[in-house]
Amino acid sequence: MSKFGTLVMGPAGAGKSTFCSALIQHLQNTKRPCFYVNLDPAAEDFAFEPDLDIKDLISLQDVMEEMSLGPNGGLIYCFEFLMENLDFLTDPLEQVTEDYLIVFDMPGQIELYTHVPILPGLVKTLMHGSLNMRMCAAYLLEATFVIDRPKFFSGTLSAMSAMMMLEMPHINILSKMDLVKGQVAKRDLKRFVDVDADLIDDDPARKVATEAEQKQYVDPASPHSLMNGASFHKLNKAVAELIDGFSMVSFLKLDVQDEHSLGAVLSYIDDAIQFHESQEPREPKEFDADNDA
Ligand SMILES: Nc1nc2c(ncn2[C@@H]2O[C@H](COP(=O)(O)OP(=O)(O)OP(=O)(O)O)[C@@H](O)[C@H]2O)c(=O)[nH]1
Ligand SMILES: [Mg+2]
């Protein structure tokens, strides 16, 4: 029997916990069971009480106080501790049946997704251990990033970094769409959703380098050369072309207030983990003449 889950990831404040709550509410509205796992050892307030909370194993506050660590070092310590005590996570998940969607709410420290090798180990255990969980990553990036194009591509690289680290089905999501409504034309938004490298050239905020600035740029091979606006632009364009040329990243738009938007994101998650293909066909409910009258 398989289990099904999604890891909700992304930078600090991207809207992960808000999305988890909205998704749980949507699952409840559509009569689907859900198991909510909080893996953020610093999270405090929840719209839905987690079914499993890493804070019952270890809390970031305690680690920082007792180990004299800062918030980022403390978080890594918490995850290393979780990896040494994986039964805390796997035992309760053993009981979860295949009709459930298991939603993992992750912390926002970006290093977890970029270069610390803890998450790949955790994902391997969940997917390839006895739980046999089919999982996908839901990586959130705040939609306001589209206002600043180099920042958008930088955020896209962080999503790619997580994709490369985790080697699991991956869905990228532009969260907080309500914040850019009316600010970005639909036509322009399309070019962020299916990433278009020309966004870098068309950037209305782009400062064109003066002739003097162009000359300032010396030798790219020299460690003492300073990159100026023109050379940063070339670098940004090359990165954007790489993303565009290989169709490596595209985004779904998410407005947590909109049930259709949540439903659309959920259907991508379901497809990625092949949720519906593995469900037993349900018996249609018996017709109850008394109640239906
Ligand atoms: N306008 C708007 N605000 C949002 C939305 N989602 C989240 N927020 C706000 O953004 C802030 C961060 O939201 P969270 O859901 O806590 O973000 P997070 O990614 O879980 O944050 P960390 O766990 O701290 O990394 C909160 O103030 C939310 O109210 C959204 O869709 N629209
Ligand atoms: Mg959160």
From TrEMBL:
<keyword id="KW-0547">Nucleotide-binding</keyword>
<comment type="similarity">
    <text>Belongs to the GPN-loop GTPase family.</text>
</comment>
<dbReference type="InterPro" id="IPR027417">
    <property type="entry name" value="P-loop_NTPase"/>
</dbReference>
<keyword id="KW-0378">Hydrolase</keyword>
<dbReference type="GO" id="GO:0003924">
    <property type="term" value="F:GTPase activity"/>
</dbReference>
<dbReference type="InterPro" id="IPR030228">
    <property type="entry name" value="Gpn3"/>
</dbReference>
<dbReference type="GO" id="GO:0005525">
    <property type="term" value="F:GTP binding"/>
</dbReference>
<comment type="function">
    <text>Small GTPase required for proper nuclear import of RNA polymerase II and III (RNAPII and RNAPIII). May act at an RNAP assembly step prior to nuclear import.</text>
</comment>
<comment type="subunit">
    <text>Binds to RNA polymerase II (RNAPII).</text>
</comment>
<protein>
    <recommendedName>
        <fullName>GPN-loop GTPase 3</fullName>
    </recommendedName>
</protein>
<dbReference type="InterPro" id="IPR004130">
    <property type="entry name" value="Gpn"/>
</dbReference>
<dbReference type="Pfam" id="PF03029">
    <property type="entry name" value="ATP_bind_1"/>
</dbReference>
<keyword id="KW-0342">GTP-binding</keyword>
